[in-house]
Amino acid sequence: MTGRSAQSRAGGSVTSIDVAAHVGVSQATVARVFANPEKVAPDTRARVEAAAAELGYVPNAIARSLKSQRTNIIAAVVPSVGEYWQSVLTAFSRALAERDRQLLLFSFSDPAQLEDVLASVTQYRVDGVILASASIDAGRLARMQTQPLPIVAFNQPAASGVVPSVSVDNDEGMRRLARHLVDTGAAEVAYVGGTATTSTDQTRYRGASQALADAGVACPYTEAGGWGYEHGYGAARSMVEAGRLPDAIMVAGDELAFGVIDALEDRGVSVPDDVMVTGFDGLPQASWAGYDLTTLTQPVDLLVDRAIEVLLDDADATTVPDVVVAGDVRLGRTTKSSSTPEPSENHG
Amino acid sequence: MTGRSAQSRAGGSVTSIDVAAHVGVSQATVARVFANPEKVAPDTRARVEAAAAELGYVPNAIARSLKSQRTNIIAAVVPSVGEYWQSVLTAFSRALAERDRQLLLFSFSDPAQLEDVLASVTQYRVDGVILASASIDAGRLARMQTQPLPIVAFNQPAASGVVPSVSVDNDEGMRRLARHLVDTGAAEVAYVGGTATTSTDQTRYRGASQALADAGVACPYTEAGGWGYEHGYGAARSMVEAGRLPDAIMVAGDELAFGVIDALEDRGVSVPDDVMVTGFDGLPQASWAGYDLTTLTQPVDLLVDRAIEVLLDDADATTVPDVVVAGDVRLGRTTKSSSTPEPSENHG
DNA sequence: CTGAAAGCGCTAACAT
DNA sequence: ATGTTAGCGCTTTCAG
Known about the structure:
Two copies of one chain form a homodimer.
Chain A: H1 16-23, H2 27-35, H3 42-55, H4 61-68, E1 73-79, H5 83-98, E2 102-108, H6 114-123, E3 128-131, H7 138-144, E4 151-154, E5 165-168, H8 170-183, E6 189-193, H9 199-214, E7 221-223, H10 229-242, E8 248-251, H11 254-266, E9 276-278, E10 295-297, H12 300-312, E11 322-325, E12 328-330
Parallel strand pairs in A: 1-2, 1-3, 3-4, 4-5, 5-11, 6-7, 6-8, 8-9
Antiparallel strand pairs in A: 10-12
The first copy, chain A, binds a DNA duplex (16 and 16 nucleotides) through helix 2 and helix 4.
């Protein structure tokens, strides 16, 4: 570094006009070098690039966006809690970066904040919005549609048919886990849900209870009151204290399931010998040796890719896309092995 | 909804000019209603607001940013892996939302991508950058300083004195954990680091080894080769296979520590009876019953608040701020209780 | 291949 | 209290 090689005008940033003046070309030529380099003579381009480097010029994306009406920014509206959403967020960020898009993050803890959040989203004129939260109801989703803004609901069964959506196959996933339990001989099963008002919870419970009913097994529902570890822990503790334990507990989410398992074992109930446990999501921790949870692994990267496609290939807007992707059963040691193992299925 | 209440011009968005024409005032008046409502007569304001609502007008933040030279956007450059960074990210997002700032997320997996990422950051003319990654070296940090852009390094000891930074007190945190181990009677301690080249790893090890040395205890270093669960698992497995186990293993991070614990117990080594284990970070999972890890809890919300202050109160730029915040020892059941318990200290 | 000119939608003097 | 005006930095015709 030669000291004065960075921009000399302290504070103010360098513009294409500065570069143009320095080289002795027009501002438009400088702009072209950065937008359509092939439309500029190699010689001119080289001189412009040199001057830009010397002055420390970097194109202003804000100005570009104002003119081009595209920001290359995608907004993600995500609940601010939960292991699962954090992993989804990371996947989105990575996938968007590959497509030269940035992720503007809007997180919220209280569904009531959602209106404000969506107002902010609109202000920034993002190119699209990813709505990832179980707690947005269909009415709100419908209202969003008044904006001519590409949108995709991620893992929200309630969004089906209302806004474009991408989800894992909650119903079939739970059915498969249920069938596995039946195969292992479970005759009494309990279900621990997160929040009963969310469509995710409802869809998963429906899948589980119907598959079990098909085998003549009942499946009473207990609401944990949330999706966190402590909710699962509390729900399982109550079940132990109530005294009657089933052969298996199907839990609506992995983080809940970890709490369920710890609560059981803290009270001397052995998993899977006394009670089997299944989860849902396939968090990284599910494959940690400490839990080694039987669960339904969501193909997060695939879901995310599909969601981005729906968002960006918005052209064929004749129908409302509703993508459902199958998950994979992960057999861990929280369930016993079945006598007739279910053949592993692929998603696609 | 009356059907035609949303904006009628399909595709193009409604501008302040549209609203002005509809009400019969100037464009500037409309702008004022949204920027400085008190400077507009209540009557006019009401009419403008009504028209805005009817037409579906939302101010364009991009245009505002171009003019005002402030985007109200903070960029976060965060590694795309690891439980710890995900939790930090969530905390930043929430804290910035409270200050009416948005978070533009740039995640990267390979340090080599950093140059590209930083170029993107610059293009978006964000109001500040949070650099959160152990793997940015001092040289790169120094180069960043050529941009007249508020910046704060989060939990990167290497940044001290080079760029403004906010960190937990790694050294003192490890010392406290080490003293606790000494108090429990540990005479042989091993240290499992993440990646030896990072300043975080070095600082933590220095604190641990020096505090142990003060008590006459040696503390050989083993590199896990990463910060993930599997790295910790592998490192501990090797130690067990090598045959000589210490009284305690100090681990550089919680996620690593979970792996260490699971590897030990998988091989019949009891924690804490055979070997004690300590972590560092204070992830939510550390307090899960399954692990109940003794660790140093980082006050993430406090660290994040400080970082944002450093970023936004950039006025007094006479010195390079270097904030260090103390953490809290969390005593779990992965260490035995000490005969002389260390009085709990507060941070501040 | 390059330059001139007209905005994108808003803010912030300044004028009325 | 409201209107007028001049840009913010760039993209994009349209001429030359």
